[in-house]
């Protein structure tokens, strides 16, 4: 911890005097462009890292960051708009030293890749970024996978290179989901939520261009990229520097234990199994329990269907989780209290049992990777339908003459 504090004090001193040093050392009115990559932070929205573009023109004392990752939690109806896929981000401009200091304070590493652009290319990019930063142009509809700070930076740089940008795409493998899992590994509940919300589209093999949605992937792609013109081929990155080197923070003593989604799901499944066995043996009705259970599943299913059919998120449909988690669970939550709806409840449980059983049996066959924690929640749902079928069958046998 002491080493981290010393490094931040040194960084602060460097930032105070950096602009003077750069102006003195750099001759002429040259403009340099760098890709800035920041390592992940601890907050959910920081787990994927960050990308920005740095522009330096020492002769005019310009040293600024173009940041496509600006948003505000104070935006009206932010949660609803985020859920619906209507979150607007914008391109912001800030002094480089302020940007660097903010990431140093959150203990993120910051890497700089100086790009070997011609002055014509650098100036064209500079003017395009300024044009893009105007109030009427700066906002864009953010999309986590296809339109974010990393993809925007990559597109702007690629567009203003006069030549063909050649990448080494041989190392690209996996899917959107596997890449997301690498980033969300520290937060299993976030992983669970993302796996629930995003459907089979993110389980297809990812293309090289699509993989650039992650800042770390963009940095690696630029490191080996080359610019090919009619006369010469040159490396895109002329130099790589580590501006801030972070160290893993010492874990703070946890005040409470947070169980994993997998643990919670199977505790839930075991409780439902025991309760269902007692129901069968002792003839309990458990209507209140089923009302709460199916209402809970129906509520989650309603949220999932909202993401699938109402939101603008491109990766939420199709989603095979919608076969076991859907708003139709509300039907049985209400119908079990109505004598006239006994047939509806019976048919519902037969269909629900068959669908959930099929999903469990075809777990490794369906074209969507389910989170391991889904199994416990699905088993609980399966057992409640099986219990209802078994109890009803037992009741029918008792009513038969001679039994």
Automatic annotation (TrEMBL):
Pfam families hit by this protein: 5TMH_Lnb, Lnb_N
UniProt keyword Thylakoid, yes or no:
no
Residue stretches spanning the membrane: 263-281, 293-311, 323-340, 347-366, 372-391
Q: Which residues form the signal peptide?
A: 1-24
- Where in the numbering of this chain does the Lnb N-terminal periplasmic domain appear? 25-179
Q: In this protein, which residues make up the domain named Lnb-like transmembrane?
A: 259-394
**Keywords, ordered alphabetically:** Membrane, Signal, Transmembrane, Transmembrane helix
Q: Which InterPro entries match?
A: 5TMH_Lnb (IPR057436), Lnb_N (IPR025178)
Domain of life here?
A: Bacteria
What is the name of this protein? DUF4105 domain-containing protein
Q: From which source organism is this entry?
A: Candidatus Gallibacteroides avistercoris
